[in-house]
Each structure stands twice: as structure tokens, then as C-alpha cells.
Amino acid sequence: MTTTPELTEIQAQALECLEGARAAGVALSAHVRSRGLELRRIYDAIAQLRRRGIVPPATGRVRKPAVPVRFAKVEVRPAPAPLRLRLILGNGRRAELEVVDPRQLTQIVGALECAV
């Protein structure tokens, strides 16, 4: 590691942690914690070093795109037999219901929204 006189002590520690984590093949956070240092101070020091051009910009993580919200247009009509609904709730739970009176549907949806 090459240190320059204009680095503060925490900045020098941050550089050591970056290099140590890369050499060990572990996450920076795990390396910092294993040394008993404050993670937030190390991150802040690295950000300062990036702004000064001493540390290259971080490579962006590949993140999964957020799942777009989709809505389905529905029409409620009186059914000759009980209405059978199969729902997948926002939390991943599934529900299957039989609704005798379509007017109950608004109460059911309201109750499910509160439960989720």
C-alpha cells in the first residue's frame, strides 16, 4: 500500500481495509468488522478518497429490476352460482374464496388489504 502524507489516519485505514478485503476475497463490511473498526467511518473515508480521485469509482452492482405493478381490469356481474376467486396477495400468500353475493367482494378486498 502506498500512503501519501495528505491522507488522514482514517483514510489510510480505509485504504488498508479496501486492499485487505480484495486480497482476502471477502466483503468490505465483513473485513472492517473483523478488524473492529466502525463501518460508517470507513465508508465515509472511502467516499472522500473517491471524490479526491485516490480510489476509483465503485463498480455498480447488477440489481434485478423492480417488478412492475400490474393491474387487471375486472367486471363484477351477478353469477348464477357462487363466485370462486383465486388470489395471490402481495406478500405471496394465496387465497381461494367462494363469494355468494358479489356485494361482499368490496368487504373482502378491504379486509385483505388491511391484512396484507
Describe this structure in words.
Among the domains are: 9-51, no CATH class; 83-115, no CATH class. Helix 1 packs across helix 2. It contains four helices and two strands. Helix content is 41%, strand content 10%. The model has no long low-confidence stretch (mean pLDDT 82). It has a two-stranded antiparallel sheet. A hairpin with a 5-residue loop joins strand 1 and strand 2 (94-99). With 116 residues, the protein is an alpha+beta fold.
Task: Give the count of helical stretches.
Answer: 4
Give the helix level as a range of percent. 40-55%
Principal-axes geometry comes out as: rod-shaped
Report strand %. 5-15%
Order of helices and strands: HHHEEH
> What distance separates the N and C termini?
52 Å
Main-sheet strand order equals 1-2
The biggest beta sheet reads: 2 strands, antiparallel
Observed structural traits:
single chain, 116 residues, alpha+beta, two-stranded antiparallel ribbon, 4 helices, 2 strands, rod-shaped
Can you give me a brief rundown of this structure?
By secondary structure, this protein is α+β, with helices and mostly antiparallel strands.
Note the topology.
Blueprint: H1 9-24, H2 28-34, H3 39-51, E1 83-88, E2 94-99, H4 104-115
Antiparallel strand pairs: 1-2
Helix pairs in contact: 1-2, 1-3
